[in-house]
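hi! just following up on the protien thing from before. the input was this:
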Amino acid sequence: MTELNLDEDKIKQLFKTALVEVIQEQKEVFSDLLAEIIQDIALERAIKEGEDTAPVSREAIFKILGNKG
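and the predicted 3d structure came back as:
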């Protein structure tokens, strides 16, 4: 078996190159993944923001949603 002797900088460069290739070859998959990450972050922020606000009744929410449709 052949022994590999790679320094840390070489490994980092190889990893970066491989990552760029994956992103370029799988643009749609990467784009979907990135969109999902952004949605998760936005949901987390909305939940945290909601924890600091006063509760709202179910009826009030549906009244607002009904007016937007």
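The CA atoms of residues 48 and 54 lie 13 Å apart.
The longest helix spans residues 27-51.
cheers
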